[in-house]
Amino acid sequence: MTYLAGEGRTNEHEDQHLVAGDPAIMTMYGDDELDRATALAIARDLDEPHRVFGVDVTQLKTIQDPETGETHKERVDAHVWHCSLSLRAEEGQLSDEQWSAIANDFVDAMEFTEAQSGRAPARWVAVRHGLSKNGNDHIHIAVSLVREDGTKVNVHRDRQRSQEVARDLEVKYRLQLTTSRIAASTERGERPSERNIAERAGAAETKARRLERGVRAAAGAAQTEGEFVRRLHQMGIVAKPRFGAGRDDVVAGYSVAIRPQKGEPIVWHGGGRLARDLTLQRLRDGWVDSPQSASEGVAEWQATWRNPVRYKPVNPGAEVREPTPELWQQYTADVSRLRKQLSDVPREDRATWAIVAKETSAAFAAWSERVEETPGPLADASRVLARSAQLRKHQVKPKPAGMASASGAAMLLLMAAKGGTGTMAEAILFRQLVATTRALYESHTAIQDARQAAQIADAMGANLDAIRARLPQIPAATKPATDRAATATLDPAAEAASRVLEAQNGGTTGRASNPLPNRIEPARPATPAVRPERDDRDR
After folding, report:
1. Which residues pair with 239 in a beta bridge?
2. Angstrom distance (rounded) from CA 69 to CA 109
3. What is the pLDDT of residues 17-38, one digit of tens each?
4. What is the DSSP code string of 178-196?
5. pLDDT of residue 273
6. Helices 424-446 and 325-341: angle between axes, nearest 10 degrees
7. Is the pLDDT of residue 298 over 50?
8. pLDDT tens, 510-524?
């Protein structure tokens, strides 16, 4: 770890940082600067199972005497497994997010984690520290070969298996296929078709996106940790806790999986693996923090631990209630008030804008959960907004006092949006959400974050046209104070939400529109009246 975090043999290392790791490591160190002190702390945590259980993980190694040339067998320590994954220089560079996904897939396929091994996980990290001397983008993976329960990791045929896994990942992530790996596997008759690999990868990606959508929606809609666990159960997601060492009353992390059909294995995903902002530590920042809520949360986690698939909620709460017209009015007003407050938030205040993006992302995730059988445009919008909200740990700040919230919208949509053409109340709330998204787009544009602004534009533009078309037309109400005829056909929830729109928008409603501004370009004269001098052209 100190070598990976250091300067390298020829000072080639730069911007050393973690891109992936087991959930506990990423929760504690994922956003930290990877200096020597942090590297040593990570090393101690990686080494803890080996140190605590005192497991003998050694192997015989042939040692050659440099003077005589004679060789002898010597037993050496071998409790750390290390490899690097590298691209050819001509392939360019991947993002941290792409490397994180590759690293997680790699350790899963190597059966270092519980996802495919069905055994206790081993601790691991993936480190990125710039290009190699030859210009190759790469990461290093270090794994403790003693699992959390003190058992050893099986590394039989690890070289061959790692090559096979790397080949599959090359196909999945559309990287250059390594000729030597293809030839070797073809000779053994083991090479599956690229179509089969792609199909498996596509199925795994769909499950991961469903889990991310569900966790994000449940977390945004929940007010407490216990409610979060119960909402996951409602959506067909099984969850289990990761307790603190030697405890069953302190929850340090969690894993989730799609509820399996009878006879199917459970494939677990840690929250931090789904997205950086979905670790339990980050999620807790948005929930009520009190002794009572903490105790109720532990009770729900303990119930899932005993039997994740057959878990029954201990203390059902808000997740089983039906939303009232008053709640529609309240939460639509919250989103509308939030949108107006954003005009006073400095564009450089990334922490506050990230909170708004996270809450709005949860609302779109909740909507997708109810109307999209598989993650579609709404889920894409949620994912893009969530990515724009991911900050380093030192950048995260509490929400400003008095600022309204979009969290209630996630709760409403999770309970009320049940497919079909949608309701009038949903159309009104949708209008407020897209207006908030427009403010987020403009904030990224203002600070010249072109990449995030473009991604929001792509996700919120034409991709959501089908959603907009499915929602009912919002009647215009030009005289809100005296004439209620325009809203006479609305259900109580929609009428309550409509009153909010009228109050906030001067009595005008109308169909929700694209949240992004139209591009306006001035007309160019056919022939300039005066030909500019060269200096003017340059200027």
Report:
1. 256
2. 40
3. 898 998 888 878 876 778 889 9
4. PHHHHHHHHHTT----HHH
5. 79
6. 20
7. yes
8. 444 443 333 333 444
CA–CA gap between residue 238 and residue 441 (Å, rounded): 35
Q: Which amino acid is at 374?
A: T
How far is 424 from 473, CA to CA, in rounded Å? 8
d(CA 72, CA 19) in angstroms, rounded, equals 40
Dist CA 298 CA 292 (whole Å): 10
Identify which of 453, 444, 345, 360 has the alpha carbon closest to the alpha carbon of residue 402.
Answer: 345
Tell me the angle at which helices 350-371 and 194-221 cross, rounded to the nearest 10 degrees. 110
Q: Are residues 112 and 91 in contact, defined by beta-carbon separation less than 8 angstroms?
A: no
Strands 80-86 and 138-147, how do they pair? antiparallel
* Closest to 369 in 3D by CA, of 379, 384, 377: 379
For residue 320, give Cα distances in angstroms to 14, 169, 371: 51, 42, 19
Q: How far is CA 184 from CA 160, 180, 350, 514, in A?
A: 10, 6, 50, 52
Nearest to 139 by CA among 15, 291, 320: 15
Token pair of 269 as six digits: 């995903």
Q: By the 8 A CB rule, do 53 and 146 touch?
A: yes
Q: What is the pLDDT of residues 236-285, one digit of tens each?
A: 999 998 887 667 888 888 889 998 887 777 888 888 878 878 888 889 98
Question: Where does residue 48 rank: exposed (0-12), middle (13-18), buried (19+ CB within 10 A)?
Answer: middle
- In Å, how far are 61, 207, 526 from 67, measured between CA atoms? 18, 58, 85
Asked whether the beta carbons of 91 and 176 are under 8 A apart, the reply is: yes
Average pLDDT over all residues of the chain:
79
Q: Which residues are CB-contacts of 433 (< 8 A; sequence separation ≥ 6)?
A: 335, 360, 363, 364, 406, 409
Tokens for 393, please give them. Answer: 């740990």
Q: Within 10 Å of residue 275's Cβ, how many Cβ atoms?
A: 22
Q: Rounded CA gap, 2 and 9, in Å?
A: 12
| Count of all residues that appear for the chain in the document | 539
- Crossing angle of helices 377-388 and 424-446, in 10° steps, is 40
Following DSSP, what letter does each residue of 270-325 receive, concatenated? EHHHH-GGGSHHHHHTTS---HHHHHHHHHHHHHHHH-STT---SS--GGGSPPPH
Q: Give the integer Cα–Cα distance in Å for 288 and 285.
A: 8
